[in-house]
Amino acid sequence: MGKDSKYTGEINPKETYQLIIKTAERLFMEYGYRAVSTRQIADLCDITQPALYHHFKNKQTLYVAVIEHVLHHTEKDLNGILAQFTTFQERLIQITTYMMDQFEMDMSQMFHDMHHELSLDDQQRVHQLWVKGFLMPIVTMINDGVSNGEIKNPEELDSNSTEMAFLILNIIKSILQPSNMGSLPKHEQTAMVKHKASLIVEIFLKGISR
User: Fold this and answer.
1) How many CA atoms lie within 13 A of 90 on its CB side?
2) Which residues lie closer than 8 Å to 157 by C-beta, 6 or more apart?
3) Residue ranges in the chain assigned as alpha helix (H)
4) Taking CA 98 as the corner, what is the angle to CA 134 and CA 76, rounded to the nearest 5 degrees?
5) Rounded to an integer, what is the distance from CA 156 to the centroid of its chain?
6) At a CB cut-off of 8 Å and minimum separation 6, what does 143 contact?
């Protein structure tokens, strides 16, 4: 369907909704909230703005829906990793690899937009979903590792599982998508992701001292 034949009606509301979410996610995560307009999103979806507003009241409503989609998807995937792998080391490698492979967007941009562009109510709602989707699977991994005797109890380090989970996520976030990685062939990107994931696990579990 070309630009001159955009539809305003609902051919398949569910497919249209998913297309809008997918397109908006790519644009928001790459360019940030303020740099993206609903007209751009509608144009790329080959629909009119009224058709987009049929699903989402405004840009902020759409942005919140995109963040919720990302967080729900992440929660499902991380819990799937916890179900599939049993040891702390395996889980940490898999979760780090997943984060580096899936989140090619600028995560700092997403967090900046969440705190500066959303209402307080939406911020609280999204934060609760972030805790459930991102943080709690890491907390579970840590608690299981302690229970299985694989890692120290964070209390021995004057810490706790939540603080440790934040530390792990911050380490992962700090190395997401190096500026030159997107230009590399896919096999080189995969190799780099695996290398950095293994490096994080090695440093986190064994440190760097002799």
Assistant:
1) 9
2) none
3) 13-31, 38-45, 49-55, 59-84, 88-102, 107-117, 120-130, 136-147, 161-174, 186-206
4) 50
5) 31
6) 161
Question: How do residues 34-90 score in pLDDT, each as one tens digit?
Answer: 999 999 999 999 999 999 999 999 999 999 999 999 899 999 999 999 999 999 999
Tokens found for residue 155: 């209390």
- Whether 32 and 113 have beta carbons less than 8 Å apart is answered as yes
Q: Which amino acid is at 4?
A: D
Find how far residue 112's CA is from the centre of its chain.
14
Closest CA to 187 of 175, 195, 197: 195
Structure tokens at 195: 């290398």
Which amino acid makes up residue 111? F
Backbone angles phi, psi at 47, to 5 degrees: -130, 170
Burial of 170 (0-12, 13-18, 19+ CB in 10 A): exposed
Question: Residue holding tokens 């990685």?
Answer: 181
Asked if residue 60 lies in contact with residue 77, where contact means CB atoms within 8 angstroms, the answer is no
| Dist CA 204 CA 170 (whole Å) | 12
Measured distance CA(112)–CA(32) in Å, rounded = 9
Read off the pTM. Answer: 0.79
Encoded tokens for 205: 């579990």
The Cα–Cα gap between 47 and 41 comes to 9
